[in-house]
Amino acid sequence: MAKKSEERLANMAQNNPGEGPDIGEVTKVVRKTKEKQIEVVNCDRLNIRVAPSATAKVSTVVKVGTKGILLEKTSNAWWRILIPEVNEGYAMIQYLEEV
Fold first, then answer.
1. Label partner for 72 (CA 20 to 30 A): which of 7, 52, 88, 93?
2. What is the pLDDT of residues 42-71, one digit of tens each?
3. Where would I find the beta strands (DSSP E) of 1-99?
4. Range 36-98 has CATH code 3.30.310.50
5. Do residues 70 and 99 lie in contact, with contact meaning Cβ atoms separated by under 8 Å?
6. In this structure, are residues 41 and 96 in contact, taking their beta carbons and an 8 Å threshold?
7. DSSP three-state, residue 17
8. Domain boundaries along the sequence of the chain
9. Which of 18, 1, 22 is nearest to 9 (CA)?
10. Could you tell me the pTM of the whole model?
């Protein structure tokens, strides 16, 4: 997927000189190539929350084995993660493993 995005950005630059690519496309490529991969472990389902708090609203629930991207280590208890095509949010680190 990152390779397709990179090719699309290169084509945009070549076909539209002086015009930059959409910032969202650049962000996707950077996230795919620079961020660390994570996997959900030690639970059947994991709540992804809108803020780094056990009382924050749950934005989505993912199953064990789900892979994602580590965006930020926000504290000793929470990481901000991205589950592609699902959601971005916060999860407790005891249920995540860097892969």
1. 7
2. 999 999 999 999 999 999 999 999 999 999
3. 36-40, 45-49, 58-63, 67-73, 78-83, 87-92, 96-98
4. no
5. no
6. yes
7. coil
8. 2-34, 36-98
9. 22
10. 0.65
Going across the sheet that includes 78-83, the strands are 58-63, 45-49, 87-92, 78-83, 67-73, 36-40, 96-98
State both tokens at 24: 């969202």
Best CA proximity match to 74, nearest among 98, 46, 93, 55: 93
User: What span, in angstroms and rounded, lies between the C-alpha atoms of 55 and 6?
Assistant: 39
Give me 86's structure tokens: 């699902």
- Please name which of 27, 36, 20, 26 lies closest in space to residue 73, comparing C-alpha atoms: 36
Query: Could you give the CA distance from residue 66 to residue 3 in angstroms, rounded to a whole number?
Result: 22
Torsion, Cα 72 75 77 83, to 10 degrees, reads -10
- Comparing C-alpha atoms, which of 63, 68, 65 is closest to residue 87? 68
Where is average pLDDT lowest: 7-21, 58-72, 73-87?
Answer: 7-21
